[in-house]
Amino acid sequence: MDTLPPTLSRHRAWLHKHARMVAEPYADLLDPDDLEALVDLGMVQAFRAFDRRRGVAFPRYARRYVEGLVRDAAGREIAHRRLLRAASAEPPPPPRPHAGYARVLSHRLLAQLPEAQATLYLRHVAGGESLAEIARDAGHHRAWATRLFAAADDRLRRVVGRAGIS
Questions:
Q1: Residues 8-29: tens digit of each pLDDT
Q2: Helices 6-23, 58-87: inter-axial angle, 10-degree rounding
């Protein structure tokens, strides 16, 4: 991002440093270029939603956006790798975030879920949508989507466990 507003340019280096610290536990999951893109996206989203009158400094406000995006991306990658292990007995090549989710999600596995859970699971894992966005589209609170996703994930784990796939 070459043409950032001055507020973003001033805090960009600090946010990148903070994001690297947050992403350290997920180093094997997130590509450095993807991490940089997540920081830039988080800064722009935070800048759009920022309200100085609330009394919070912009770096602190933006840090929460960046942390959330990094953790969401790592969570999607973890779910992706679980599904790859479940779908294939041989080890998969190192996956790229968001690459080939739709191919990995077996119709047999998703058929085990109620329609609402399967739709939410596909939109979040394969489509990369946040649970908050999905809940907003459905007219519900984020907690609804979180519960639905957790139930779907739990059911898929049980199905995979019964099949003897690790």
A1: 677 777 777 877 787 787 778 8
A2: 40
Distance, CA of 63 to CA of 44 (rounded, Å): 12
d(CA 72, CA 76): 6
Burial (Cβ within 10 Å: 0-12, 13-18, ≥19) of residue 58? middle
Rounded distance, CA 12 to CA 127, Å?
28
pLDDT tens for each residue of 88-112: 655 555 555 444 444 444 666 777 7
Q: What is the pTM of this model?
A: 0.46
Tokens for 155, please give them: 């059911």
User: Length of the chain in residues, anyone?
Assistant: 166
Taking the C-alpha atoms of residue 11 and residue 43, their distance in angstroms, rounded to an integer, is 9
Contact 22, 70 (CB under 8 A): yes
State the Cα–Cα distance between residues 66 and 103, nearest whole angstrom.
29
CB contact at 8 A, 126 and 105: yes
Contact 66, 39 (CB under 8 A): yes
